[in-house]
Amino acid sequence: MDRVQNNNDPTFVDPDKESYNLRLYVAGQSPKCLKAFANLKEICETHLKGRYQIEVIDLLDNPRLAKGDQILAIPTLVRKLPEPIRKIIGDLSNTDRVLVGLDLRAR
Fold first, then answer.
1. Distance in angstroms (rounded) separating the CA atoms of residues 10 and 44
2. Which residues of the chain have pLDDT under 50?
3. Which of 21, 39, 105 is nearest to 75 (CA)?
């Protein structure tokens, strides 16, 4: 749903200025996890340049961290901000699917 800017609406957030806090859950340096990170970096540089932060969580080092975001499969991308939280599972090679999942493109 697109929102039209209304200067009188204090809850309006310009999607072109929103900051994205992304968390990528991986398990070591597997080819699928490395591909997911590379794909995510490319998507962010193309569509969110200067407006994103990526945190990579290696579940081989910290398996307990999976519980907080209820991670059941890897790799999994979690968009923490802007809310609502969104999850995308897989190597993120389907750019259109990732953009829809991040609410950067209409469904």
1. 27
2. 1-13
3. 39
Residue among 99, 62, 59 nearest 79 (CA): 99
- The answer to whether 56 and 89 are in contact (CB under 8 A) is no
Pairing of strands 52-58, 20-26: parallel
Q: What is the pLDDT of residue 15?
A: 54
Neighbours of 31 (CB within 10 A): 8
CA 92, CA 43: separation in Å to the nearest integer? 9
Residue ranges covered by each domain of the chain? 20-101
Class of domain 20-101: alpha beta
Positions of E strands within 1-98: 20-26, 52-58, 76-81, 86-89
Angstrom distance (rounded) from CA 14 to CA 19: 10
Q: What is the pLDDT of residues 28-41, one digit of tens each?
A: 999 999 999 999 99
Check residue 16 and give its pLDDT.
Answer: 59
